[in-house]
Amino acid sequence: MTAIALTIAGSDSGGGAGIQADLKTFSALGVYGASVITAITAQNTQSVTAIQGIDTDVIAAQIEAVLSDLDVRAVKIGMLSSPEIIQTVASGLKDFKGAIVLDPVMVAKSGDSLLQDSAVDSLVRDLIPMASLLTPNLPEAARLLNGRSATNQDQMLAQGHALRALGCKAVLMKGGHGSDDICTDILVGADQSTTFSAPRIATKNTHGTGCTLSSAITAGLAKGLELSAATAQAHDYLQGAIKAADGLNIGHGHGPVHHFYRVWSA
Asked: Considering 38, 206, 212, 218, which one is annotated as catalytic?
């Protein structure tokens, strides 16, 4: 059987994040990707200049069309800009039995907001309890908890446990926004926590890293890997994609990572 994963997220016209990054990642890791588009953004490596949410009836129809026909094993959820869209996605996935990876996308790499303030409560109430894995970066975790960003691993671990208490099965606290020479992510589960560390790579070309990591984990889950193994595979894949990013020379701002670095080099 061909492993199939579904991404439910916004479209990035610049191709570095969102739906585009997710589908590239699925393909690079040997998984067939389907998609449900929740919003269209006018976006490049420098800024987001417009956002248009998709009509909720159309979002619901996309989810129904995919899940009624394709044997989807895992779902990645990314940009959901409004409470209405969040509630539509939650309703559409209520009977889904596979893994759900929720990436609480709030701010683009350019610094532009991608999530309405009114949507945070809906995200916590309606979707986080459905998630097999929640993958916040440090600012996102702080916003979900109405607190301050973690500055060390002990604080990251504590926030991971606090987020798990909201109902999700596991949390991956991503350390990319930290300042240490070593970048550390912490996977917080019910019984144990696992640390994934790698040297921080000096590059500005990190557009789409969050989308890429969460979709890489989703790809592993779709192929039947356990969560820890899927996360380890995704962590290694993303490190390679970041290392190869400077060779792409895309745009004038924060360029994308190189999703297909194992297939072709710039």
From this structure: 206
